[in-house]
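To: structure subgroup
Subject: Chain for Friday's discussion

All,

I'm putting the inputs and outputs inline so they're searchable in the archive.
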Amino acid sequence: MPKDVAYGALVTLKNHRTGGAYLHSHFHLYPEGVGSKQQQVTTYAHKDENNFFVMKKWNEEPPNNTDIEAVIDLVKNGDLVRLEHFQSRRNIHSHNQPAPVSKRHFQVTGYGENGTGDANDVWRLEIVGGKEGEVLNTVTSKLKFHHYFVKCVLTCSTKNLPKWGFEQGEVSCNPTTRDPNSMWNVEDNHFSKLPNSSVHDLAPSFFSRFIESHKVMLQGNSGLKPKEGEMTSRPWEWPINLRGQWFSAGDDKTRIYLLGNPVIWWANIVFLIIFLFIYSYSSFKCQRGVSESPEITQERENTMVSASWLFLGWGLHYIPFWTMGRVLYVHHYYPALLFSSMLSAVLLDY
């Protein structure tokens, strides 16, 4: 695809934040009582034909792409533009109505017929860190869209719409222009009259992709929320085997409930406490210089070293869950349970 973006190009816009989704619209309208009853504009995480927009000047139609005589006009930093949804031919629009979820933001809609709307369809394009008149590039340019009249920036609020919006991401216009979620990239760029660029010119470095992939995983993990009617649990409930987990779907007669063996789980708690007591007592005797036979001392040291590593493994696999805000289940405790069970076996052998 071309490196430069021209007026009339068919583009997709992806939010620049880690794990960001595509700017998206569809023929469904906002429901009654949710701002203006105009076409919904959302973010969508997957490739879709409803992600495509035509980049246009604010006051004129772009030339026909098939006209070889037409002058190619490139999109530049500071230009006033319109974004026309390719499928519905409605423009990205904002006005002084509150957004559906983020009430301090303004609503963003699809408005107009056959590409003709009103003055609230006009956006000023800013290339972040770019010079005045700099040409917009595919993938590499970070851009913002400033609404010309409402004085806000097109942003992804990171909140999901209700079921009437298919639980897709909310798109709004934020009066705070420094919003970090207001930056976008042109990811797809279709324009037949410009030469295609090499993939190597657009591809990020290995380390950039490595860091981004881990950020996406961490962000996706931390954002997981419980489903309706789902049984979740908290870390303090796991060692005492207080609450289990429905392990399979079905009605109440065929569902399987996952619960630990109380004898093993409660015994592990006892042995964790015994280990702390023995370790403290052994350290106290060592500090006081209490003499014992070499065989007893060596056996205790070997046991404490093994038990200490297992206790550390239990803590590393259990304690971090106390800091997590994501949805949690009892099966998250199973790696820590393995270490506590081995610790119990070592102390029993001792």
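Points worth raising on Friday:
Residues 3 and 147 are 26 Å apart (CA to CA).
The longest strand covers residues 22-29.

D.
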